[in-house]
Amino acid sequence: MRHQLLNEGQSLTVSVPPAPEFGEPLPGAASSEVLAFLARRRSASALQLRAPAPSAGELDDLLRLAARVPDHGKLGPWRFVVLEGAAKDSFAARLEHIATNRPDGPKAIAKLGKIKTPPMAVVVISNVVAGSDIPEWEQQMSAGAVCSTLLMATSAMGYGANWITDWYAYDKDAIELLGLTGSERVAGFVLLGTPTDPSMERPRPDLASRITRWAP
């Protein structure tokens, strides 16, 4: 699907290819554009995300791309909950009510700004398949990969995105509000919208101290 966006006052058209057919050869291809994107990838501030958010068609494309992650056993151990419009406002209001009953009430309420401000949120739910030979940890990592891919795909489409958890990803009442069942857990709230200001580069880890090479 082609998407017409506005980027720094100029019209920008991005295109998302259709899903390949089952069994279709998918040869790898070098892409300097993808490498350049990854070299400068930066999450947007949740408090600076405003409308417009991705349209319904754009969101469909983004979720399709997010689902193309490593998934040992082809289990699809995750699902999505979309929060937008009046429904998202109602969800945030109910979280605020939950927060008032927490020991850290004022602090918990203050942290709701990150979910109140952006026009859209996609909650990625880790849904571990019980009885599978695939370890639970691997299934949970697949859900994390969904969050990361959704984050990057949204940025590549020209929007801004931020991946958070915070207290409402773990609070019992908040989890019930989302409708989680059994062993389901929140892998992340991915917040979507249009940034009001460009993101600035932040300090990055010292890779030299984090790389070793195994030797016998």
How are the elements arranged and paired?
Elements (H helix, E strand, L loop, with lengths): L1 E6 L2 E6 L16 H8 L9 E2 L5 H11 L11 E7 H16 L4 H6 L2 H4 L3 E7 L9 H21 L3 E5 L7 H7 L6 E11 L21
Antiparallel strand pairs: 1-2, 3-7, 4-5, 5-7, 6-7
Helix pairs in contact: 2-6
Task: Please tally the β strands and state the result.
Answer: 7
Order of helices and strands: EEHEHEHHHEHEHE
Oligomer: single chain
Instruction: Please write the CATH class name of one domain.
Output: Alpha Beta
User: Which percent range fits the helix content?
Assistant: 25-40%
Low confidence ranges: 6-11
Measured between the Cα atoms of the first and last residue, the distance is 50 Å
Radius of gyration: 19 Å
Helix/strand/pairing category: alpha+beta
Judging by the overall fold, what is the CATH architecture of one domain?
A: 3-Layer(aba) Sandwich
What CATH calls the topology of one domain is NADH Oxidase
Largest sheet, strands/sense/barrel: 5 strands, antiparallel
Question: Considering the protein shown, what is the CATH homologous superfamily of one domain?
Answer: NADH Oxidase
Shape: globular
Strand content: 15-25%
Number of helices: 7
Kindly state the mean pLDDT as a whole number?
93
Care to give the gist of this entry?
With 216 residues, this protein is an alpha+beta fold.
Quickly list its features.
216 residues; alpha+beta; NADH Oxidase; two-stranded antiparallel ribbon
